[in-house]
Amino acid sequence: MAEKSIKLTGGRGWGVTRECSGCGRPETDCRCPQAPAESLPAHKQLARLRLEKRRGKPVTVAAGLVMSEAQLKALLKELKARCGAGGTLKDGELEIQGDQRETLRALFEGKGFRVKGG
Prior knowledge:
Layout: H1 2-9, E1 46-54, E2 57-63, H2 69-83, E3 87-90, E4 93-97, H3 101-111, E5 114-117
Parallel strand pairs: 1-5
Antiparallel strand pairs: 1-2, 2-4, 3-4
């Protein structure tokens, strides 16, 4: 069994270097853009609301939020529950079904965000 492991690792022993899934380099030499480690406080963020049409139906989009993906998912879950509508997270933007601009404006302002649009 030891001979097989030496052949697989190229004689480097048990140490295995991990490679980045994006660029294929070792993790220590990775040059991929990193996600922001921390989000900005709510009072320093500007939430931009806009209404779009998807297949003839209105969709409210909230963009411009600087948060981790986990924080965005938690916020999306809360917004969907408060609006009573479905929604999704696409490319860092929150999408809520229907014309929910006034509801989202009130919710964001209640959390301390600055809001533009809508």
